[in-house]
């Protein structure tokens, strides 16, 4: 994905617990501040359950008419929430399995021809690669995302903020490759086990279809990117 030649909007979705929402805690605000001196256009959203996430997706779809022409404009989706290997948790512990997230994203994916770049700012967010392994019946192109970025383990909130700010600085402002941006981001994380990692949806889907095992998918993907 060449972000230099496209209009890119960074849509940050805060899936906050009530106690944090009431005091205005926001990952969107934290990243907006850290990236204030860049050209990145940040658009803030808030959700607390699956229905409100679907509403956010509709809002993103209508944000820019040019999204229908992904060679000209693209939304970059960043979801901030709690997470485990099996999915995300929205608001006050509303579970969002990977299959349910896949369903939520499908209308947007159809609109932009399955080119969605996605970041999951949650513990174990990297395991969102499992979007490629389930809930794919409606995905005509069999691509659950263009790229997916997320931590491989549990991570402190401040480190998440710093790492993702660095990631977007490199990817969407300096226009480096995703690997270079990931390497820069991981310098902000103290434990290698929790480093950010990425996968490309088309590669993960091909590997899954060939191996029919999520464990082997990860092994193949890591070997490719080592």
Structure in words:
This protein is α/β, with parallel strands linked by helices and 226 residues long. The protein has helices at residues 18-21, 27-34, 50-61, 98-111, 157-173, 178-186, 201-211, 214-225; strands at 7-14, 41-46, 73-80, 82-84, 87-90, 94-97, 117-121, 147-151, 196-200. It has a 6-stranded mixed β-sheet with strand order 2-1-3-7-8-9. A 3-stranded antiparallel β-sheet has the order 4-5-6. A hairpin with a 2-residue loop joins strand 4 and strand 5. The two termini are 20 Å apart. 43% of the residues are buried.
List the keywords:
single chain; 9 strands; disordered C terminus
* Main sheet overview: 6 strands, mixed
CATH class: Alpha Beta
Coarse shape: globular
| Total strand segments | 9
Series of H and E elements: EHHEHEEEEHEEHHEHH
Element layout with pairings:
Blueprint: E1 7-14, H1 18-21, H2 27-34, E2 41-46, H3 50-61, E3 73-80, E4 82-84, E5 87-90, E6 94-97, H4 98-111, E7 117-121, E8 147-151, H5 157-173, H6 178-186, E9 196-200, H7 201-211, H8 214-225
Parallel strand pairs: 1-2, 1-3, 3-7, 7-8
Antiparallel strand pairs: 4-5, 5-6, 8-9
Helix pairs in contact: 2-5, 3-4, 5-6, 7-8
Concise account of the structure shown:
With 226 residues, this protein is of the alpha/beta class. It has helices at residues 18-21, 27-34, 50-61, 98-111, 157-173, 178-186, 201-211, 214-225; strands at 7-14, 41-46, 73-80, 82-84, 87-90, 94-97, 117-121, 147-151, 196-200. The longest helix is centred in the C-terminal third of the chain and has 17 residues, at 157-173.
């Amino acid at each position: 994905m060449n972000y230099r030649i496209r209009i890119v909007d960074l849509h940050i979705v805060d899936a906050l617990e009530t106690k944090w929402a009431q005091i205005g805690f926001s990952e969107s605000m934290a990243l907006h501040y850290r990236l204030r001196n860049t050209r990145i256009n940040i658009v803030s959203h808030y959700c607390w359950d699956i229905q409100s996430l679907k509403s956010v997706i509709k809002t993103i779809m209508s944000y820019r008419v040019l999204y229908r022409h992904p060679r000209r404009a693209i939304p970059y989706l960043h979801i901030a929430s709690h997470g485990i290997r099996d999915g995300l948790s929205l608001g006050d512990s509303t579970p969002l399995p990977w299959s349910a997230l896949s369903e939520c994203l499908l209308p947007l994916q159809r609109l932009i021809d399955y080119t969605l770049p996605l970041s999951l700012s949650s513990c174990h967010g990297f395991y969102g690669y499992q979007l490629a392994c389930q809930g794919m019946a409606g995905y005509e192109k069999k691509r659950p995302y263009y790229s997916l970025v997320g931590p491989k383990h549990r991570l402190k909130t401040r480190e998440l903020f710093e790492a993702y700010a660095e990631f977007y600085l490199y990817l969407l402002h300096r226009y480096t490759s995703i690997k270079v941006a990931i390497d820069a981001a991981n310098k902000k994380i103290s434990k290698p086990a929790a480093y950010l990692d990425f996968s490309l949806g088309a590669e993960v889907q091909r590997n899954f279809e060939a191996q029919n095992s999520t464990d082997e998918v990860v092994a193949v993907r890591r070997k490719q990117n080592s």
